[in-house]
Design brief:
The protein has 5 helices and 2 strands. It is mainly alpha-helical. It has one domain. The longest helix has 41 residues.
Length: 150
C-alpha cells in the first residue's frame, strides 16, 4: 500500500468511526444499564462497592412475608423502574461521546430522583469493573471497523 492509499484508508476509517460512534456508544450505554441493574440485584452495591442502603424495619417485615430477600436494597420491588431505564441520548463530536442514561418515562425519572434523594447516592454510576467491561465492548467494535477498513 502506498502513501496515497494509506491516507485514503485512514480518511475512510475516520469517517466510518464518526458515523458508527453513536451506535457503538449506544450499545455500551445499554450494556451499562444491564450491568448496573445486575449489580443492584445481586449485591445491592453502589458504584463504590458500598451497600446502597438498608430497608426500614417496616419494609423488612413486609418483604419477609412475601419471602423476599431483605439483606440489601435492590430498588426492584415492582421492577417498573429498572425496566424503564435506558439510553436517553447519545451525543458525539469533537472527539468525545456522551451517553445519557435515565428514565424513559416520567414515572421512572421521578422514581430515580426520589430514590437518589432518599438514599443520598447516584443510582446509574458504573464501577471500575463495569467500566473495564464497557471499554472492551467499545474496543471490540472499533477493532471490527479497523479490520473492515484495512
Amino acid at each position: 500500500m502506498n502513501a496515497d492509499e494509506f491516507i485514503s484508508k485512514m480518511n475512510s476509517l475516520k469517517a466510518t468511526l464518526e458515523n458508527e460512534l453513536p451506535d457503538i456508544m449506544g450499545e455500551a450505554g445499554t450494556s451499562a444499564v444491564s450491568l448496573i441493574s445486575e449489580r443492584f440485584n445481586n449485591s445491592g452495591q453502589d458504584a463504590n462497592g458500598a451497600l446502597f442502603g438498608k430497608y426500614s424495619e417496616t419494609t423488612i417485615r413486609i418483604k419477609q412475608k412475601k419471602s423476599k430477600q431483605t439483606a440489601f436494597v435492590t430498588l426492584r420491588d415492582t421492577n417498573r423502574m429498572w425496566s424503564n431505564i435506558g439510553i436517553i441520548n447519545v451525543k458525539t463530536g469533537n472527539n468525545i461521546a456522551i451517553v445519557k442514561m435515565g428514565g424513559r418515562l416520567e414515572f421512572t425519572r421521578k422514581k430515580l430522583r426520589d430514590n437518589q434523594e432518599r438514599f443520598g447516592k447516584r443510582i446509574l454510576d458504573v464501577n471500575n469493573s463495569e467500566k473495564a467491561q464497557l471499554s472492551k465492548i467499545i474496543e471490540f467494535r472499533v477493532q471490527q471497523i479497523i479490520n473492515r477498513t484495512f
